[in-house]
TrEMBL record:
Taxonomic placement: Eukaryota, Fungi, Dikarya, Basidiomycota, Agaricomycotina
Protein name (Swiss-Prot/TrEMBL): Actin-like ATPase domain-containing protein
Domain of life: Eukaryota
CDD domains, per database record: ASKHA_NBD_HSP70
SUPFAM superfamilies: Actin-like ATPase domain
Length: 601
């Protein structure tokens, strides 16, 4: 176990980590007192919690009435009689809503989107996300007030300045982070200003899981000898796979391969089961009980399954419920173990394939991957663990699960991430940069082919627009201190035109290795629209003491030219963008976190 260091701050602080998962959610926290070694705790008491197995997480479910008011959340949704009450009063159930944030940016397939329950009552995923966060926050406040010595005093001393850490799938980026931050604001947890936004930080589920493993039994070979480790966080909606190594004589870890995110979590086992049971019961009177049977499968059979040679049973009714033609006897549906194993097969194939790909990547260092660490709620499945061991140990890998609750990995790991920042180098997933105008060079083919688009500036300069300046290339290993910048300029007739100097941060997700122009992928079907706007950063430079210059483009009058730099910083799970300029030889910067609400479509 990696020891946490004493907190060096000057005042008490509370850190809350929300793990809002597709199927289950939890909260972990740490009270930071100056000079004290912090500890990581979990919220283990929620309303109606006695209905839920596993003390640290509650179902990610919300019931709304027809007016859109929240009526039941989390464990309350499993209370006895809640289904009847919901039907009688017209409540609408919302679950798996987290996946709609991913679906909205156009990056998930139609096949996946069609399997996600629709959002209720014209509500957005962000509105539901905010309602659930507000509920988790209220439960956390009650828990701390009730369980800590002087709990009321403790909460009152920190409630106005709480730091929030939110974990998310490896595949989420600036757009999804902007949606989550907006939900945090909408939930009333932070004010909607720069200082409020700064109290929210993000960590990928893969990196949070690594931090959990470090604190809870990461193999000593990895901690001491510099061997690599692959973290497989198998959750309800996604499976996040990340690779790390701890260089010899280093206290921190490095990411060694682009983290992966796949829609093959435990809900897709349930989807496969539903399709199979639906076909099996299509001619049975019990077909109308399909939803109930699948829910029973989720709660029992899916969790306990561990042997494909043994028959499996889904108990859903009473001893009077029988249909021998469909293998229903005494209220139990009998399934062949081999059939149940097929429900898990897509997830197993996905993990094995991704691990193989990461092993086969060329590496610049001699470190070898020795272990695969399986965490997450789905990671608690004995069948998944058993099959991964069989498949991956043949490749020379040792598959392990932490001794403590693997379903706490992300929430606890997110707090640990905030406290220790054990990962200091990461791999860029895409090309990041900005569009700019470049000096026209006659005779250069890529310039002459765009001669019809030339811009003539007041200085007389001829510029070719829409050149893509790569500031952070795909696959680049960068540390948290790394920053890249490109020099820009703006020519205007009046200094007031510099009051909203702006640039867009662009992410390129196509297949070109070196995209240079906005229209580079226009002729490639598989790349259309792969330049995505992440955010716009604006600054007011109209106050700069600029010297007026005579125009040289054939027009009369004067113009002003402002020089500035576009800066990108790679920090944790977020990029940061800045405009930099100089005043009286002093460097000035305007900072914007890439979490503004811009749809990349």
């Amino acid at each position: 176990m990696q020891k946490l260091l004493p907190y060096r701050g000057l005042r008490r602080k509370l850190v809350l980590a929300f793990d809002l998962g597709t199927t289950y959610s939890g909260v972990s926290y740490s009270v930071l007192d100056p000079g004290e070694v912090p500890s990581i705790k979990g919220v283990t008491r929620f309303p109606a919690h006695e209905q839920v197995s596993g003390a640290s997480k509650i179902p990610t479910i919300i019931y709304y009435d027809q007016e859109g008011k929240v009526r039941a959340v989390g464990a309350e949704s499993l209370r006895e009689g809640i289904t009847d009450q919901a039907e009688e009063e017209g409540w609408v159930k919302s679950e798996w809503f987290k996946l709609h944030i991913r679906a909205r940016d156009g990056s998930s397939s139609d096949d996946i989107a069609s399997k996600i329950p629709p959002l209720p009552l014209d509500k957005s995923a962000i509105e539901i996300f905010a309602d659930f966060l507000a509920y988790l926050f209220r439960c956390t406040e009650t828990y701390i007030r009730d369980t800590h010595a002087n709990g009321d005093e403790l909460w009152d001393s920190v409630k106005g300045d709480i730091e929030f850490v939110l974990s998310h799938p490896n595949g989420w980026e600036g757009f999804q982070q902007s949606q989550i931050r907006r939900a945090v604001v909408q939930a009333g947890l932070i004010p909607d200003n720069y200082h409020g936004h700064e109290r929210v930080s993000f960590v990928t589920e893969g990196e949070a899981s690594l931090h959990f493993a470090i604190q809870n039994g990461l193999p000593q070979e990895v901690m001491q000898s510099g061997q690599g480790v692959i973290i497989v966080d198998a959750g309800g909606g996604t499976i996040d796979i990340s690779s790390y190594r701890k260089p010899k004589f280093s206290k921190t870890f490095e990411e060694t391969y682009t983290p992966q995110c796949h829609f093959n979590g435990s809900i897709f086992v349930s989807i496969q089961a539903r399709l199979f049971i639906d076909a099996s019961l299509k001619n049975s009177e019990f077909h109308s009980d399909l939803d109930h049977i699948v829910r029973c499968f989720d709660k029992t059979t899916k969790i306990r399954f561990g042997d494909d040679n043994q028959a499996q049973y889904i108990k859903f009714g009473s001893t009077r419920d029988n249909d021998f033609s469909c293998n229903i006897r005494f209220g139990q549906l009998k399934l062949n173990g081999a059939d149940v194993a097929t429900f898990f097969e897509p997830a197993i194939r996905c993990i094995v394939k991704t691990v193989r790909e990461q092993l086969e990547q060329p590496r610049s260092d001699p470190a070898t991957v020795s272990h695969v660490v399986l965490v997450g709620g789905f990671g608690a499945s004995d069948w998944l663990f058993k099959q991964l061991r069989k498949e991956l140990e043949s490749l020379g890998l040792k598959v392990v699960r932490p001794e403590l609750h693997v379903n706490k990995a992300v929430a606890d790991g997110a707090v640990s991430f905030y406290l220790s920042h054990m990962v200091t180098a990461r791999i860029s997933r895409y090309h990041y940069g900005t569009f700019r105008n470049v000096e026209y060079k006659p005779g250069l083919l890529e310039h002459d082919s765009r001669i019809g688009d030339l811009l003539i500036r007041p200085s007389g300069r001829k510029l070719v627009p829409n050149s893509f300046s790569i500031m952070l290339a795909k696959g680049t290993k960068v540390s948290e201190e790394t920053e890249t910048k490109v020099r820009m300029w703006k020519e205007v007739d009046n200094k007031d035109q510099l009051s909203t100097l702006s640039f867009d941060v662009i992410c390129y997700k196509g297949r070109l290795d070196d995209p240079k122009w906005r229209d580079d992928d226009s002729g490639l079907i598989f790349c259309i629209g792969h330049f995505k706007k992440l955010c716009r950063v604006e600054a007011d430079l109209s106050h700069l003491p600029l010297e007026a210059k005579p125009k040289k483009n054939g027009e009369e009058g004067e113009y002003f030219c402002a020089n500035y730099w576009v800066v990108l910083l790679f920090n944790s799970a977020e990029l940061k963008a800045q405009i930099m300029w100089k005043e009286s030889n002093l460097e000035m910067r305007y900072v914007e976190i890439l979490a503004v609400d811009l749809d990349p479509n």
